[in-house]
Write a structure and sequence with these properties.
Layout: H1 7-24, E1 27-32, H2 38-48, E2 52-56, H3 59-73, E3 89-94, H4 98-107, E4 110-112, E5 124-126, E6 129-130, H5 138-143, E7 148-151, E8 154-157, E9 161-164, H6 172-181, E10 186-188, E11 191-197, E12 200-202, H7 211-232, H8 240-257, H9 263-273, H10 275-289, H11 293-305
Antiparallel strand pairs: 1-3, 1-11, 2-3, 4-10, 5-9, 6-8, 7-8, 11-12
Function: Ribosomal protein P0 is the functional equivalent of E.coli protein L10.
Organism: Arachis hypogaea
Keywords: Ribonucleoprotein, Ribosomal protein
Length: 321
């Protein structure tokens, strides 16, 4: 039987394993593992097998290994992981798509009962309906101010009740009631806290961005640059078209108010002298765009209205009779 490794040997083996993973992988998900059981973690490892590796350990051990790797290789990019190693966290090393790996991790969530003293991660609402409990159990509902009635020998909740608010600790009465109702309000699994990718650390919400979101944010940025450039009269590529248009409007306004003119201004002055010309031009433009379609339609209508010529047979005789 092989001798059991000592603590020192375990630390050396852990350091070697983590340093090897840091050399092989450039993408890491930092995940929170609160309330995650060993069986659940094993299922997650099995689901990610192939292109991802889940590594758990004490924060001090992981920080020590990261520092050792940085000192031995001279590569300081992984030092940005150290501030993220706070609380009950683990590391998922992956070579796959970060979004797909994050979605795969989120699949392995299991329902859990509300235990006393646990901080609620979500609001817990008890739905209305028949509870299946006998009338002797009404004391639980009375303590929690839940409106009930007796219906066919069982307790029925009349209206939905917010039993626990997010961030509140679960009390003994709330835990007992939820247990009697068979409600498992919470679900736990690995939660991605931060994403490390080739030296950059960012929030996991970035993985949910689509191309449309990026285009929208880029358009907002361009509009802000344009507004700032116009406000301080500083020419930029985004503001240049607006500056040219505004300059043209100013020159046109001066030409209209003075004797100075140019070809484009002459047309505007002509419209201002005789507004009826502008109305004629506005009507002629749609007609030209249709390419004479109304005229063709009118001719077609005239053909339909013309009476059909009577044949010889219709008149009752033939020219050859």
């Amino acid at each position: 039987m092989a001798p059991k490794p000592t603590k020192a040997e375990k630390k050396i083996a852990y350091d070697a394993k983590l340093c090897k993973l840091l050399e092989e992988y450039t993408q890491i998900l930092v995940v929170n593992a609160d309330n995650v059981g060993s069986n659940q973690l094993q299922n997650i490892r099995r689901g990610l097998r192939g292109d991802s590796i889940v590594l758990m350990g004490k924060n001090t051990m992981m920080k020590r290994s990261v520092r050792m790797h940085a000192e031995s290789t001279g590569n300081d990019v992984y030092l940005s992981l150290i501030p993220l190693l706070v609380g009950n966290v683990g590391l998922i090393f992956t070579k796959g798509d970060l979004k797909e790996v994050s979605e795969e991790v989120a699949k392995y969530k299991v329902g859990a009962p509300a235990r006393v003293g646990l901080v609620a991660p979500i609001d817990v609402v008890v739905p209305p309906g028949n509870t299946g409990l006998d009338p002797s159990q009404t004391s639980f509902f009375q303590v929690l101010n839940i409106p009930t009635k007796i219906n066919k020998g069982t307790v029925e909740i009349i209206t939905p009740v917010e039993l626990i608010k997010k961030g509140d600790k679960v009390g003994s009465s709330e835990a007992a009631l939820l247990s009697k109702l068979g409600i498992r309000p919470f679900s736990y699994g690995l939660v991605v806290l931060s994403v490390y990718d080739n030296g950059s650390v960012f929030s996991p919400e970035v993985l949910d961005l689509t191309e449309d979101d990026l285009v929208e944010k880029f358009a907002v940025g361009v509009s802000m640059v344009t507004a700032l450039s116009l406000a301080i009269s500083y020419p930029t590529l985004a503001a240049a078209p607006h500056m040219f248009i505004n300059a043209y409007k100013n020159v046109l306004a001066v030409a209209v108010e003075t004797d100075y003119s140019f070809p484009e201004a002459d047309k505007v002055k002509e419209y201002l002298k005789d507004p009826s010309k502008f109305a004629v031009a506005a009507v002629a433009a749609p007609a030209a765009a249709t390419g004479g379609a109304p005229a063709a339609a009118a001719k077609e209508e005239e053909k339909k209205e013309e009476p059909a010529e009577e044949s010889d047979d219709d008149m009752g005789f033939s020219l050859f009779d």
